[in-house]
């Protein structure tokens, strides 16, 4: 199957099945893409858990911000991690997610963000990986 078609099939499944999305690198600024994506996902019925060490303990969009994925209580609820960090920061986030999120189904990196080595590591653990795409752009085609 064509890689693009497979990725579109994966995105359609993710849009239908994801429930709890940890957003790593979420900003408190409404003008930042991470805030807009989080707000969109919430409006579509997804639970969004903000992760940003500089904002830990604060509240964004009605949810407590955590310093890291490891700090999220009920980590077993998280089935998708959406990464708003530079490409060189993706590897450690993916490693942490694979180690502490038992029900992780999807790792997603935002537009312009790729780490093929981390993506392969996640895929080898059975996790779907979408890179260099935005759920706010992709999900409306499938919801």
From TrEMBL:
SMART domains in UniProt: CoA_binding
Every CoA-binding domain range: 15-113
Highest taxon above the source species: Bacteria
Protein name, entry field: CoA-binding protein
Lineage: Bacteria, Pseudomonadati, Pseudomonadota, Alphaproteobacteria, Rhodobacterales
Native source organism of the sequence: Paracoccus caeni
PANTHER family with a match to the protein in the record: COA-BINDING DOMAIN-CONTAINING PROTEIN (PTHR33303:SF2), CYTOPLASMIC PROTEIN-RELATED (PTHR33303)
């Amino acid at each position: 199957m064509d890689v693009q078609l497979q990725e579109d099939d994966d995105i359609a499944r993710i849009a239908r099945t994801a429930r709890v999305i940890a957003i790593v690198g979420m900003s408190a600024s409404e003008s930042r893409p991470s805030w807009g994506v989080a707000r969109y996902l919430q409006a579509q019925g997804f639970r969004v858990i903000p992760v940003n060490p500089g904002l830990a303990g604060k509240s964004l969009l009605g949810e407590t911000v955590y310093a890291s994925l490891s700090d999220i209580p009920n980590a077993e609820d998280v089935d998708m991690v959406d990464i708003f960090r530079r490409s060189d920061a993706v590897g450690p986030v993916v490693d942490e997610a694979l180690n502490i999120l038992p029900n992780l189904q999807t790792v997603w990196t935002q537009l312009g963000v790729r780490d093929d080595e981390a993506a392969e590591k996640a895929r080898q653990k059975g996790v779907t990986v979408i890179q260099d795409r935005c759920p706010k752009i992709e999900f409306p085609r499938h919801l």
